[in-house]
Write a structure and sequence with these properties.
Chain lengths: ~250, ~110
């Protein structure tokens, strides 16, 4: 089932010319696109489910009810922010700190959403804004790859996001109910799944030597910011560093 | 179950979901209203790679030789096969073998 739908990286359709080509390409929002996104993302979502189990267990330990933990996974759908929120959870709940930290940790989504603009601006806004609710790190990366390959599947983000959502919510419920009876996820290598996915995707994003300068800038700035600022600011800073490097280089 | 305390918790969850959706939709919304210049487009074009490099650099520095070895396996398989899922499986497999080997020795 997966071998026909799992797309190769499509290194040939690199970022450079793809962004101009795509302006004229057809983009459709079909049931088939939802299905492709779901099937392609399902194995990735299985890894996300591993984190969902961990989240469910941690949420219970922090004093959240099963219902609160599941409601958080279903409506927030942002792993890093949820884990940090659970870390801040106390009695009475520090509402401002929890919501404020959630906002800061999720600022990187601004950039991810903006990067979908060349394609999503051609969708009816109801479809675009519904899809954006289901955007997470993992399916955003898979979607960018699919759109850049020129498949024209506007519903890919929604389909892949639904896969993430289902596994994330169900795993949260299982983790919250089962509590401490689940073993260490490191036993199954689940802690490395996300790193592996990002590395494999990065190989597909490699666009020859032109990628080198922005990537080095992103790496250096990310490490520098991570040592100075707590939280996830380094992700935002690294992305911006890559962009600024690219723009200043082309101005010269 | 629906006492005051748990309603407070659900209200906080609701607040979290509002700000999260605002970030997910906000970047797209803002750029849908202004027509970006050529340099903004170039900037957006390198964003995905830049964000992933930032996440990965910190993750890999936090890890150790085991993660780095598994990471090399991922890159090699991804480069040869251009298949993300195969590369992921190779990486996790390598990680488990190295981890198992280390605990075996110790």
């Amino acid at each position: 089932m997966t071998q026909t739908d799992a797309e190769p990286l499509g290194r040939s359709s690199g970022s450079g010319e793809a962004s101009t080509e795509t302006e004229s390409e057809a983009l459709e929002f079909s049931r088939d696109g939802i299905r492709s996104g779901f099937v392609t993302c399902a194995p990735v979502a299985l890894g996300v489910g591993g984190y969902g189990l961990v989240f469910g267990v941690l949420a219970r330990e922090a004093g959240l009810s099963v219902m609160t933990a599941v409601a958080m996974s279903a409506t927030v759908l942002a792993g890093a922010a949820q884990l940090i929120a659970v870390g801040l959870w106390d009695w009475p709940i520090p509402a401002v700190a929890v919501v404020g930290t959630t906002l800061v940790v999720n600022l990187r989504y601004l950039l991810m959403g903006a990067s979908l603009r060349p394609w999503f601006t051609r969708l009816p806004s109801r479809q675009a804004y519904t899809s954006l609710f289901f955007m997470a790190d993992e399916n955003w990366a898979l979607t960018i790859q699919d759109l850049r390959a020129g498949n024209g599947r506007g519903a890919f983000l929604l389909g892949s996001g639904l896969a993430i959502w289902v596994f994330w919510v169900v795993a949260t419920a299982i983790g919250a109910v089962a509590g401490g009876r689940i073993g260490n996820p490191e036993t199954y290598g689940l802690d490395f799944v996300l790193t592996a996915i990002f590395l494999a995707l990065l190989v597909g994003f490699w666009d020859g030597r032109t990628s080198l300068a922005p990537w080095v800038a992103a790496a250096v700035v990310a490490v520098a910011v991570e040592t100075v600022l707590p939280g996830r600011w380094y992700i935002l800073a690294g992305g911006l560093a890559a962009s600024l490097t690219e723009v200043t280089r082309n101005v010269r | 179950m629906f006492d005051e305390v748990s309603l407070t918790a659900l209200a906080v969850v609701f607040g979290m979901s509002i700000v999260t959706y605002a970030t997910k939709a906000g970047g797209f919304w803002a750029l849908d209203r202004i027509d970006p210049s050529e340099s903004v487009r170039e900037a957006l074009d390198v964003l995905p790679g830049g964000i992933i490099v930032a996440i990965l650099t910190v993750r890999l520095l936090d890890g150790g030789p085991t993660e780095w070895t598994a990471g090399i396996a991922v890159v090699l398989v991804a480069y040869r096969t251009e298949n993300v899922l195969l590369a992921m499986a190779a990486g996790v497999g390598t990680l488990l073998i190295v981890r198992w080997g280390r605990t075996g020795i110790v």
